[in-house]
Each structure stands twice: as C-alpha cells, then as structure tokens.
Design a protein that fits this description.
Blueprint: E1 11-12, E2 23-24, H1 53-67, E3 87-89, H2 95-108, E4 116-131, E5 137-152, E6 158-171, H3 176-205
Parallel strand pairs: 3-4
Antiparallel strand pairs: 1-2, 4-5, 5-6
Helix pairs in contact: 2-3
C-alpha cells in the first residue's frame, strides 16, 4: 500500500532593497533530489553574487582613481600639503580665539615654517529657543560667524578668504554651575566646528595657492 508524502511547508524569507521575497520550496526534481538552496542572502538585498557589476566597481574604483593620478589633498604630494606647518594663525585675545587657534593648529600643524598668515574675526550670539510656561528660558542656541583671510607672507597679497557660520545648543536647566559648564562646552564645540569648516575651505582652495 503506497501513501503520498505531504509537501513540506514553503518558507518565505524577508526581503530588503525593494526586491520580492524569495520562496524556498523543497520540490523534488525529476531525479528525485531536492534542488540546491540559494546562497545566504542572495535575491533579498544581501550576499550579492561575486560577479555583480556594482560590487566589482566598488572594489576596483580606488585602483582606477590611483591609476588616473588621483591624490588625496593632504597626501605628501597633494595640493593641500603646502598648508601643513606653514599657516600662522592670528594670536588669540579671548577664550573663543584660543579654542579656534588650538583646533586649527591640530588640523594644520604648528607653524614651523610660516608661509601664510590667517587673520580672523569671531562674532557670537546667544539666542533663547526653549521656554517654560512662565517664560523662563530652558535652552539656548549659540550662533557663531567667522570672517577669515589668508595672505601670502612674502607679498602680503590676499590668497583666499571667506565666511563660515554654524551653531551649537545647550540646556539652561539645573544649577548655575551646570549651566555655565554647558555654555562653555557649547562654545568650545562651536569653535572646533568653525575651525574644521575653515580648514575644509582652505583645502578646497589649496590648488590655487602660490
């Protein structure tokens, strides 16, 4: 007496990346053997096949850039390498200026052989943005604007310059000491953010520096 075997349940894998779910059905082939299961993740957003064109591009793109002569800006032979150790930043006169100069020298190095002078003007403004029902301020935004100019030390000519701006925030709740500490931390973060923006602008302009 023969009896038919019930088919095993269908398993549907989750899918990602907009693809349809993959249904794995253990259906016997003509030879009576079950077909091989797909590789883990294949067809549902993961485990892309090794011969996938997109994957090959990602793997070999850096080699192609190197072959085309691409060089990172701050590499030894890069255009921005002339900024390292050659920019003398204007001496600070207050805490904000000190924090700014400290970060700029972290990024560009101490001026061992000054070739350029970087002058700057810092403007900050504190604005209340959070209020209680009785009109007490609970949160502040600290806004900052820096105008900067890079000049050639030898000729005194302006090489590049511009303006950067950003803001940080801090809470005014808690004790007076905690509020002052939060304000000081926000000011430090703001100067470091603005310094990084200045460095990014200088690197972008480095190809045209004398």
């Amino acid at each position: 007496m023969s009896s038919s075997r019930p088919s095993p349940p269908t398993l549907t894998l989750p899918h990602a990346g907009g693809r349809e779910p993959v249904a794995l059905v253990n259906t016997p082939t003509a030879s009576g053997e079950a077909p091989p299961s797909p590789r883990v993740g294949e067809g549902w957003g993961g485990g892309a096949p090794a011969n996938n064109p997109t994957r090959r591009f990602v793997l070999f793109a850096p080699l192609a850039l190197a072959a085309c002569g691409f060089t990172p800006a701050l590499a030894p032979e890069g255009p921005a390498s002339r900024l390292l150790g050659t920019v003398y930043v204007q001496d600070p006169t207050d805490k904000a200026g000190f924090d700014l100069v400290e970060r700029l020298e972290e990024r560009l190095g101490r001026p061992e052989n000054p070739r350029y002078d970087l002058a700057y003007t810092i403007t900050t403004e504190t604005v209340g943005v959070g209020f209680t029902t009785d009109n007490q301020i609970t949160r502040y935004n600290l806004k900052g604007v820096i105008d900067y100019t890079l000049t050639d030390r030898g000729t005194g000519a302006r090489v590049t310059g511009g303006r950067v701006q950003n803001f940080t925030a801090y809470a005014a709740t808690g004790s007076t000491v905690a509020g002052l500490a939060a304000e000081e931390d926000a000011a430090l973060r703001l100067m470091r953010i603005l310094a990084d923006q200045i460095v990014a602008r200088l690197i972008a302009a480095s190809a045209s520096l004398p």
